[in-house]
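Escalated from tier 1: cobalamin holo job.
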Amino acid sequence: MLKAALEDGDPGTAAPPRGVAVLGNIEDDFHALGRKMVASFLRLDGWEIVDLGNDVSPADFVDAALEQKARIIGVSAMMLSTALNIRGLREELDRRNLSGVLPLAVGGAVFNMRPGLVKEVGGDGTASSAMDAPALFRTLCDNAAASGPVSDTESAAGDDAGMPDGART
Ligand code: B12
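Tier 2 regenerated the structure:
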């Protein structure tokens, strides 16, 4: 479906609505290009994108996700120093009992270079390119819906059970 939409150049009729996804670059990160590409591919797949832009604080990510009734948060970071700031977002999700309910997709070149980083920052999964983001987002949301709320301890520990390829690596 995605391939057909890309070939047709008609995103409007490509996919059924999948709900809202909140995207942004984590605090102190200003590398917007990758995030914008991810947003484009997700839109083609039927997601409504709320793009918070660059340099987004953990609290702002979660506030926006709740306000917009988002199904998932997607965070981009290009540098190791900024990727580590994603830990604050996981802590914020834990604090509000949203871990396991509101999945956290992470991405950016640094995650492709350091496979263990996804787990280190508390991400639920990653995709190495914008083209692979729709499958990741759908799988993470399906898993969250199937498993329901989990305890903070479980989510922070990085239980890999049932996660898609690339998730919590
Ligand atoms: C362009 C660029 C900039 C531009 C960004 C402009 C913009 N509007 O985006 C500007 C000039 C602002 C910039 C600034 C800086 N940069 Co810079 N920058 C780059 C550069 C050349 C390309 C990055 C890029 O756009 N890649 C293309 C995109 C499409 O790729 P991508 O982000 O990886 O995204 C893809 C996937 O990763 C994935 N993806 C991305 N996000 C997400 C999110 C999710 C949820 C998912 C699932 C997938 C996903 O999908 C995308 C498409 O396939 C890289 C070097 C390089 N060759 O990578 C350095 C680089 C990232 N920058 C670097 C540095 C050091 C800086 C500065 C500190 C420089 C300085 N001294 O000021 C500042 C820091 C700014 C900040 N705080 O963020 C270093 C980082 C080193 C490190 N690993 O820590 C790099 C690697 C250069 C280098 N070799 O030193 N930079």
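The CA atoms of residues 103 and 141 lie 7 Å apart.
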